[in-house]
Specification:
The radius of gyration is 15 Å and the shape is globular. The strands form 2 sheets. The protein has a 4-stranded mixed beta sheet. Strands 5-6 form a two-stranded antiparallel ribbon. The protein has about 140 residues and is α+β, with helices and mostly antiparallel strands. The chain is built from 4 helices and 6 strands.
């Protein structure tokens, strides 16, 4: 498999991203990360590959973010990763891994830069928004 998506089937952005990958002709490996969370080492590797801080991966809506006081700057990166390991719902989604890179695909069109096929036409999101599926800056060779 060339593409992996860390997916939450209850999330519209995650469903749209998965559908865009499939429309490009790829059948990705799907990791339902709430059922099968990444290991601590894998989560750290994903964060590093995205070039973001752990705090940038935290999801606030629908999570224990506020109850755990995670907006407080006192938490170290390691502590924030500990919280994500204890409460995988805190990991924002979808994260897509492809040979072209790793990205948090919010909005779902962010996946276009990771697709292997340059032009797969149009895609209609669940909310009715039409997106032209042309990857940006695609090179061959």
């Amino acid at each position: 498999m060339t593409i992996t998506i860390y997916h939450n089937p209850d999330c519209g952005t995650s469903r749209n991203t998965l559908a865009m990958i499939r429309q490009s002709g790829e059948e990705p490996e799907i990791v339902e990360y709430l059922k099968n969370p990444p290991s601590r080492d894998r989560l750290i590797a994903l964060i590093a590959a995205m070039g973001i801080a752990p705090r940038a991966l935290l999801r606030e809506k629908g999570t224990p973010y506020a109850a755990l006081d995670l907006a407080n700057p006192k938490w170290s990166d390691d502590e924030l990763i500990d919280f994500m390991m204890a409460h995988p719902i805190l990991i924002n989604r979808p994260i897509v891994v492809s040979p072209k890179g790793v990205r948090l695909c919010r909005p779902s069109e962010a996946v276009l830069d990771l697709l292997l096929v340059a032009d797969v036409g149009q895609f209609v999101k669940e909310d009715g928004e039409v997106v032209s599926l042309r990857t940006q800056g695609t090179h061959t060779g």
